[in-house]
ATP phosphoribosyltransferase regulatory subunit (Virgibacillus dokdonensis), 412 residues
Amino acid sequence: MMHPLLHTPYLDNDLLQQRDKMVATLKQRFKTYGYQQIQTATLEPYDLYVGNPKIGNTDEMIKVMDTSGKVLVLRPDVTIPITQQIATAHMNVGEDTRLFYIMDVFGYRFEDDQKQRTQAGVEYFSNRTPAGDAEVIALAIHILKDCGFPEFKLEIGHAGFFRALLAQANLSNEQIAPLQTYIQTKNIAEMVDYLATLPIQETVKEAMQHIPFLYGEPNEVMEGIKQNGLNGIVQAELTYLVDVYNSIQAYGLTDHIVFNLGLINDMNYYSDVIFQGFVNQVGNPVVMGGRYDGLGDYFGARIPAIGFAFDVDLLLHAAKQHGLFTTLKEDEPIAVSYNISQQKEALAIALALRERGYAVVTYSTNDNRQAASKETVHIICETDSYNLYHGEQAISFQHISEVIQLLQERGS
């Protein structure tokens, strides 16, 4: 059952502050890796997604119609429109383009009742290299460390691993779909029964049966692949995956890495390395990503890239589960109360304080409004006197500069 936080249609002030703090942490870490922020349109042409199975399932998208009768969709994905923008601009991948985003995505695919989720992620447009892929994975790990999670794992696989085995089997899409589901759910018994019905070689069947077991410490997984004779079939994919892992070792982050050769991402545009991150006590991945070198081809441009997206809502839920929310000090507003005859002077004081960054609320003593109890600092402007009240202490003043000094001395 999903945590109630994820069903709530709104967040209270405390959760909003925690969310803002988390987003600020994400933004700062993105920037330390040289990424610049980008924004795409919330409403996109339906034609951007229809007609290509790699682009996504249009049945899961929320569609609307504009006044001209054109069908639009609420942004279901971020990688696709960003890739289109880069392709349209004919940007040179040699420029090492690094972009990050904090945006909402919409659709009917989410497991909870919400139709809107916030994603925070990066897109790194550059030629494929193990070092480049390792850096993106290191960034994802770095963020989980920044968030304070004591234990987490990043599963790394390769989209080409399963495809290399499928190339030996010559199966239709209808035959592949159940097999893919069995591998994702590690349903060994039904997978074995299903494979027995398929017209493929026994060596390939045996190889596929071993896929769900290829999970764990990288060296152990590699040894398992050799023992089961899989390395000859998927040698190119394994060699590249090992090169990426060796590059991650240079960051000293391999304690958080496991290999999962049964990892199959639902986004069909991934081409090479894929990964997903889990934290304890949360069943779903908080981050998912991978390399998608062929996505730009759909838009007429060859722009290899790798990226990932954090589910901010799930990340917030995970932080709450782990007790990682810090006590945030909320600036209490200063209440300025005034006699109507002193309105001009009182509002001038309020404006001066706001210009200096203070939160201020104003009340006329001639109406029925009262300062809230949490407003512990009061300034009362009467006909012949100006007083600042801090708790039980009252201090008279004549000029706004005196107020500023008194507030600074009290840390308000």
Remarks:
- Residues 1-9 have pLDDT under 50 and may be disordered.
- The chain has two domains: 4-321, 334-409.
